Amino acid sequence: HISKLPQVEPSIFSVMSALAHKHEAINLSQGFPDFKSDQELIDLVSSAMNSGYNQYAPMAGNLELRKAIASKFELLYNSSYHPESEITVTAGATQAIYTIISAFIHADDEVILFKPAYDCYEPAIKINGGKPVAIQMEAPNYGVDWGDVASKISTKTKMIIINTPHNPTGTVLSEKDMLKLQSLTEDTDIIILSDEVYEHMIFDGLKHQSVCLFSGLKERSFIVASFGKTFHNTGWKMGYCCAPKELMVEFQKVHQFNLFSVNSAMQKGLADYLQEPKHYLELANFYQEKRDYFLSLIKDSKFTFKPAQGTYFQVLGFEQITPEKDVDFAKRLTMEKGLAAIPMSVFNVDHTDDKVLRFCFAKKNETLKRAADILQALN
Ligand code: PMP
Ligand code: GLN
Fold first, then answer.
1. Which of 118, 223, 230 has the most ligand 1 atoms within 8 A of CB, as the residue to mutate?
2. 379 pLDDT band (50/70/90 cuts)?
3. Angle at Cα 40 formed by Cα 39 and Cα 45, nearest 5°?
4. For residue 1, what pLDDT is reported?
5. How far is Cα 216 from Cα 318, in angstroms, rounded to an integer?
6. Do the Cβ atoms of 371 and 365 come closer than 8 Å?
């Protein structure tokens, strides 16, 4: 066989965005804002380019940026990561995730992940010869059954991947969940890959439970983050990861040969922009208002929902509207009604939970209004 990933097809995000484009539909499918990144950040990046940040950055990233990231961890979580040895700037969270998995997963290692799961974890595990071990979270609460996790941990378990706030469900892990994860893995070498790209998008006073808040987890964990999510520029593909030094050494052995280093001017611009914590602290309110606005517009529709606790995605149940499966309904909604969303079932074990769609509300209010008008009119 030539293919190392015979089952892999174009991602649902590419498929739905292309369909939205073809039918000129409002695109609430793939997660990206339809508004501009802050002009101040754009100006900082251009001025970095103009002042000479145009050659290779250091392998681990611009040191000013790594220091700014370390300060953010101090400020938000009272947690220290050494800028010189425990932080690496990456080409988005996706590259960090792929590189972490490549650096640690040997053939036949097991990696526990929770379904519905963001789509980039499994192919990275498989291409490295690892075995994904899926735990299904059940609708509508999508909570983790820690008894199930305990039963699936074995001597082969090398890594557990968590994601909070969670894409696609919009749920967040509680302190209790994190303590459970800590107690289940405490006396093991299991590495935790904690995908925290939505850390700043958390609502209703809930607190983001970063793995770095739990000393028994932090010592074995990678945290992955995305500037694209935080600063409204997903196309820049900028992110980073943090981990204790011994783990970061292994990460960088791979990073230096699959990338070497990341866009220099953007790193300098982001380093300057991060000096002002309000740039990320204001995000929770900003997106909570968008979520509330969107939900207020569709509250009398036939869709059912629980408000997202975090992320910029809202899951809507459509059982009262059509008996179709989510994949079919998502396509019809795009082609016939002009509104694109993401079907939930593609992220699940055996494609279960096929009566909900995920809508991205990182959009201008006028876009949300036009989308809501379409949803309201569905009977
Ligand atoms: N993890 C999750 C849960 C995501 O939703 C995304 C992006 N949508 C990523 C990782 C990848 O982030 P990036 O665009 O920075 O590669
Ligand atoms: N993370 C984005 C989402 O969940 C998609 C990014 C991508 O297209 N790979 O919509």
1. 118
2. confident
3. 95
4. 83
5. 41
6. no
- Reported as a pLDDT band with limits 50, 70 and 90, residue 215 is very high
Ligand showing the shortest atom-to-Cα distance for residue 313: 2
With a 6 A CB cut-off, is 195 part of the ligand 1 pocket? yes
Q: In the CATH scheme, what architecture does the domain 12-30+282-376 have? A: Alpha-Beta Complex (3.90)
Residue the block writes with tokens 């494609």: 351
Give per-residue pLDDT as tens, 21-39: 999 999 999 999 999 999 9
Cβ neighbors of 227 (< 8 A, separation 6 or more) are 233, 236, 238, 239, 240, 270
- ipTM of the complex as predicted: 0.98
CATH classification number, 39-276, choose in 3.40.190.10, 3.40.640.10, 2.40.30.200, 3.40.50.2300: 3.40.640.10
Average pLDDT, the chain: 97
Mean per-residue pLDDT for 141-168? 97
Is residue 34 a contact partner of residue 364, using CB atoms and an 8 Å limit? Answer: yes
Q: What is the pLDDT of residue 30?
A: 96
Per-residue confidence (pLDDT) for residue 145, from 0 to 100:
97
CB 167 less than 6 A from any atom of ligand 2: yes
| Closest to 126 (Cα-Cα) out of 160, 102, 158, 103 | 102
From the list 376, 344, 379, the residue with the least C-alpha distance to 137 is 344
Tell me the best of 29, 197, 222 to mutate to test the pocket of ligand 1, counting ligand atoms within 8 Å of each CB and taking the most. Answer: 197
CB-CB contact of 362 with 234 (8 Å): no
